[in-house]
Amino acid sequence: MSHASESLHEGMKKEIKSNQETYKYCFFPDCTNTTCTAPNKVFLNVPRDPAKRQRWFDAVESPGKSAKKSKHCCADHFDLENDLENFSEWRERGAQKKIEKHRAPSQNSQL
Q1: Which among 11, 33, 63, 83 could disulfide-bond with 74, CB atoms 3.0 to 4.6 Å apart, if both were Cys?
Q2: How far is CA 39 from the centre of its chain?
Q3: What angle do CA 81, 26, 32 make, to 5 degrees?
Q4: Residue 40 to residue 71: CA distance in whole angstroms
Q5: Any alpha helices (H) in the chain, and if so which ranges?
């Protein structure tokens, strides 16, 4: 296994362990990904800042889900390599994910 593959593997192992410790579900409409149905899926925290949070909900047109309760969005709705400002550190060392400032989830990212 190459060094890059080992680093990615270590970052993913940390992410999976984190997902197993806390139940998460994707707030995106019609997305059924949860830490139970997709235990190896990466989940991103919905921003806590009210303006950023509202931008995410507006981007996905999610009227049926509460902006107060929903806390996660799965990676299917992002292009992680381009949407994370620290993609390399996250992938290689398992650093906490940091979304680029003006990014929001999208239906077309990986679906």
Answers
A1: 33
A2: 13
A3: 110
A4: 18
A5: 3-21, 50-60, 80-83, 87-93
Q: Which residue has the higher pLDDT, 62 or 58?
A: 58
Bridging pattern class, strands 43-45 and 72-74: antiparallel
Q: Rounded distance, CA 20 to CA 14, Å?
A: 10
> Residue type at 84?
L
Amino acid at 54: Q
Residue 67 pLDDT > 70, yes or no? no
pLDDT at 90 over 80: yes
Distance between CA atoms of residues 26 and 34, nearest Å: 6
* Distance (Å) of CA 60 to CA 4, 56, 81, 101: 34, 6, 20, 17
Overall residue count recorded for the chain in this entry: 111
Structure tokens at 10: 């270590």
- Residue 18: CB atoms within 10 Å: 15
CA-to-CA distance for 32 and 4, rounded, in angstroms? Answer: 31
